[in-house]
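Researcher: Please predict.
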Amino acid sequence: MKQFIFIMATFLLVCLPKSGFSDPATINNDVSVTDYIGIRGWSTYTISKTYSMENFDDGVTFPNITYKIQIDQDSPFLIGTPTMSLHVIKTVGGSVTLDYYKPISHNTAFTYTTSNDANIVWSYSFIFKYQVPSSTPLSQTQLTKFEIRKLNGFIWDWQSTFYYYVSTTCEDSWNFNTGTINAGDHEVSDYITASVQAFPNGGITELDAGLAVTLLPGFYSNLSMSGQVLIVIDGCGGAYRTFNPALGAPKVTDATILNFKNENISIYPNPANDMISLSIPKATIGEFIKIEIRDVNGRLLHSENKTYDSNASANLNTLTPGLYFITISGTDLNYNQKIVKQ
């Protein structure tokens, strides 16, 4: 019996985590992390994360200690297997003598170097990278676990587990009446959109001081400063990016939107039988406007230019009952809305 107790005590001392004797090794102070990744339909994200490493050495006894990190991913599998590395910095007498990145692999031993010399300081950071494809589904969460183990004799002692959650979401929406299309990649809605609720899976806006363009998914529209706009459907209601075609990259110049007359427009009645009335409070009596009506496939069915007045209207008597999209455009005006013909 005494021999059995001795064997069990030895097993417990060797095999179990040493939290009772020293602090266990941790990543990010043993605090879990949740990152929200906005999905855009044209690109695969490459994410790089850096976190601190604590208690990876006992500070006195051993100058080189062996660890390994095991990766475990729960479904749904939103990201590829992360690649890991260590950022290692050695400082001697206050001056950095080494600064490099050391790749490490899943469940493969690596050496954590320490020093008892007060003039020599080793510091480590934990880095992992992963990709999120453009086809990744939205509103999903995946847990990736990084389990830290320390070699104690012939046994790999568990130290701690770092929990990293990634959740897919939409980018922030940006509604446009007036203002600026900022260079880069953005979610859009309202007057620039790739939502199926707008005409026809796209929208109309004014770019670059009066150049009216139609923005549809997959369609490039030229801007006056040698740029382009691309609209895509990304599951979030649409997204746009501005390009410099000469560089093949997002452009660095902004484009001005001048749709300030879009506010408080009303089209009534809706649904309608043969006629609809148009109220554009910020339009000037006598200015020219253009009215276009398209079906759900984007085909132009009706187009007319007219002078705006308080009795402005559009005739629907040539349309069959169904859903349509009406666009009203003019100076500082680009507006589209769904209408229903009864």
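Model: The longest strand covers residues 155-169.
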